[in-house]
Amino acid sequence: MAQPCCGPVFWLYVAVCVCLVMFAGLMSGLTLGLMSLSLVDLEVIAKAGKPEDRKNAMKILPVVKNQHLLLCTLLIGNSLAMEALPIFLNSLVPAWGAILLSVTLILAFGEIIPQSICSRYGLSVGARTAWIVRVLLLIFFPITYPISKVLDWILGKGHYALLRRAELKTLVDMHGNENEKEAYEAYCNHAHNVGFSVRKDHHYYWPTFRKIKSKDFVCSKAGFKKMPDLNFQLKYQKSDTGTGCSAMIRFTVDETEYWKVKKIIENHNHDLFGLEDRHLLRLSRNVCDVKALVLKSMTEAGIRIIDAYTYLFDEVGGVQNVGFSKRDACNFIQKEKNKE
Fold this sequence. Notes:
Blueprint: H1 8-35, H2 39-48, H3 51-64, H4 67-89, H5 95-120, H6 122-128, H7 130-139, H8 141-155, H9 169-172, H10 180-194, E1 198-205, E2 212-219, E3 248-253, E4 259-265, H11 289-300, H12 305-316, H13 319-322, H14 326-339
Antiparallel strand pairs: 1-2, 2-3, 3-4
């Protein structure tokens, strides 16, 4: 039954309809804006982006950490708003008018406009509305949590999509005083977030003076073994880990030593490391000073390297917290002996 025009209840229903359209638009826009930002994207931007982008990425990261939970929350919120709108419109106009108005309002102000805005300004809009999403995650948690767990079980938790060229802008936006070490570390940070290791490759010099003109960093699985292994005994032969991966980045350096990205190839032809295995990447393994001192002290006291490594393993709570492998520990001790 339609309410009489211009009464208090009439304007209350109008306000409710406006709020429902705005809420549906927000849910629709955030679904596109937030779900198009993978965890890898946000981690890279949070570490190497512009100051404003870093701030926005840090606000969004906790919200999108569980992507299936976020997706279920946004879709349920959007569905509730769209289903409730015709009910309130039916109290203001005839049934045919309620259907026509709801379709028009949802299409224009609940889908097209918000998705156009969020597709362009997804990072900033997501950061400003992160508190709203947090509240919705809490409200819908009893419903969305079981659904998200089923999706995690069927589809898996991770979203390890490779960064596209536009999303690698944080590697391009480098400061003018960067050197080779900082450029290498920037690509290593990106590689760790994606799940592969990096090694240095070719470099070229300026013809007039002995300074680097360009430098390539490639995936550790680039190329193949050039010569056959001359060790006939199987246990001494080294496995060929190269897969001919073409992923790489090329930095160019001008006369003022300004480093910038010239070329990026992102396609890998091998499996990438997941979040739970990235501590095994070569670039992630490092014998820090404190643990190096423990290894040296224990081996000098006559304790075997394997026992010293096991001690560290038990102390820090797992191999992922040790920071290096048993082979790394043996290599470190051997290098220390060679120095003597």
